[in-house]
C-alpha cells in the first residue's frame, strides 16, 4: 500500500457523518453555557449593590456609602412646616432650615435620601407659641419631653425629603426628616444632627395622596433594609 493510500485510509477513519440530533444538542448546550456566563457576569457586576424594593424609580444603593456621601450636619433647629406630614399623610416630619446646613446638602438633587439622626433638647429655652405658615399656632417645647426611656435620644434611622413637594405646589425647596421612631410628643425647637448616607429616588409628582403615601412607605422600607446592614451601621458613630 502506498503512503498516499494509507493517508487516505487514516483520514477516512476519522470522518464522522454529521448527525442532526447530535448537532442540535451541541448547539443547545453551547447556548446554555453562554447564558450561564452572562448571568454570572451580571451578578458579579451588581455584587456591590443592595437589593431594594421593586420600583422603577429606585436608584442603585451601594453596599456602603459612596461619594458624595456621607454628608453630616452640625446640630440645627427643628422648625414647624405646613403640618401636612402628620395631619394629612400620617407621616410626621421634622423640618430644618436649609441655611443651617452644609452647602453640599443644598446642592443635592431633589429627591429622597436616607441616613441617621440624633435629636436632643435645646438648652435654656422656655416653651413658646409660634405661628405656622398656614396661620395655625404651634407650641415650641424645645424638646423638653424627649424621653431617654422611650429611646427618643438614641441615634435613629431617618428618611429625608429634599424637594419642593410638587403635589402641594410649593415653589421653594425644603428639607424634611421623617425619623423612624414612635415619638410620644412633638419636639418643635429641639436640635437635630444628622447624616445623609445615600439616595433612594428622585422627587416625583403624584395625582393622588394615596399614591404619595404608598411611595413614602416604600422609601421607609428601603431605608430600613439598608440601614440595618453593618457597613451603614458604622456611620451612627458620626452622631
From TrEMBL:
Residues 71-228 form the Riboflavin kinase domain. Its EC number is 2.7.1.26. Keywords: ATP-binding, Flavoprotein, FMN, Membrane, Nucleotide-binding, Transferase, Transmembrane, Transmembrane helix. Pfam families: Flavokinase (PF01687). Pathway: Cofactor biosynthesis; FMN biosynthesis; FMN from riboflavin (ATP route): step 1/1. It is an enzyme of class 2 (transferase). The chain crosses the membrane at residues 22-41. InterPro entries: Riboflavin_kinase, Riboflavin_kinase_bac/euk, Riboflavin_kinase_dom_sf. GO terms for cellular component: mitochondrion. One of its GO terms (biological process) is riboflavin biosynthetic process. One of its GO terms (molecular function) is ATP binding. Catalyzes the phosphorylation of riboflavin (vitamin B2) to form flavin mononucleotide (FMN) coenzyme. Belongs to the flavokinase family. PANTHER family: RIBOFLAVIN KINASE, RIBOFLAVIN KINASE/FMN ADENYLYLTRANSFERASE. This is Riboflavin kinase. It comes from Saccharomyces kudriavzevii (strain ATCC MYA-4449 / AS 2.2408 / CBS 8840 / NBRC 1802 / NCYC 2889). The gene is YDR236C.
Amino acid at each position: 500500500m502506498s503512503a498516499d493510500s494509507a493517508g487516505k485510509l487514516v483520514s477516512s477513519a476519522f470522518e464522522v457523518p454529521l448527525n442532526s440530533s447530535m448537532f442540535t444538542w451541541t448547539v443547545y448546550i453551547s447556548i446554555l453555557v453562554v447564558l450561564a456566563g452572562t448571568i454570572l457576569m451580571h451578578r458579579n457586576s451588581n455584587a456591590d449593590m443592595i437589593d431594594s424594593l421593586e420600583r422603577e424609580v429606585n436608584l442603585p444603593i451601594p453596599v456602603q456609602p459612596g461619594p458624595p456621601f456621607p454628608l453630616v450636619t452640625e446640630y440645627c433647629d427643628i422648625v414647624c412646616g405646613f403640618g401636612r406630614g402628620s395631619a394629612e399623610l400620617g407621616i410626621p416630619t421634622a423640618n430644618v432650615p436649609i441655611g443651617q446646613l452644609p452647602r453640599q446638602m443644598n446642592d443635592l438633587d431633589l429627591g429622597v435620601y436616607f441616613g441617621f439622626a440624633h435629636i436632643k433638647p435645646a438648652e435654656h429655652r422656655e416653651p413658646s407659641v409660634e405661628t405656622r405658615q398656614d396661620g395655625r399656632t404651634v407650641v415650641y417645647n424645645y424638646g423638653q419631653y424627649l424621653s431617654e426611656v422611650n429611646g427618643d435620644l438614641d441615634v435613629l434611622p431617618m428618611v429625608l425629603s429634599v424637594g419642593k413637594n410638587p403635589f402641594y405646589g410649593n415653589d421653594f425647596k425644603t428639607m424634611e426628616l421623617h425619623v423612624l421612631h414612635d415619638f410620644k410628643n412633638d419636639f418643635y425647637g429641639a436640635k437635630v444632627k444628622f447624616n445623609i448616607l445615600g439616595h433612594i429616588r428622585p422627587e416625583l409628582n403624584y395625582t393622588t395622596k394615596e399614591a404619595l403615601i404608598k411611595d413614602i412607605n416604600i422609601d421607609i422600607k428601603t431605608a430600613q433594609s439598608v440601614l440595618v446592614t453593618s457597613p451603614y451601621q458604622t456611620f451612627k458613630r458620626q452622631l
